[in-house]
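Re: that chain you flagged

S.,

Sorry for the slow reply, it's been a week of failed gels. I finally had a moment to sit down with the sequence you sent. For the record, here it is as I used it:
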Amino acid sequence: MANQIGDFFGAQKIGAASGMAEHLRKFWAPHMREAISEHVQHGGDGLSPIAIEAIKLLAAEKKGAA
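Prediction finished late last night. Pasting the C-alpha cells below so you have them in one place:
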C-alpha cells in the first residue's frame, strides 16, 4: 500500500515525499506508521525510494517533537 501511495505522489513530481508523509500522518494509524518506520530502519526492503523518503521525514518530525 505504501508503494501505491508513493506512486500517486510521485506522479506529482514536486514534493512527492512530503505529500506522502502528510497523507500517512493524516490517514494511517500511529501503530501503522510505527511499523513501517521500523521496517525502514531495517533497510525498507520492498519500499520505493519515495516511500522510504516519506517515512524518514515522519521519523525526523517525530524526533523533533520529542
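What I noticed first: The CA atoms of residues 37 and 55 lie 6 Å apart.

Talk soon,
D.
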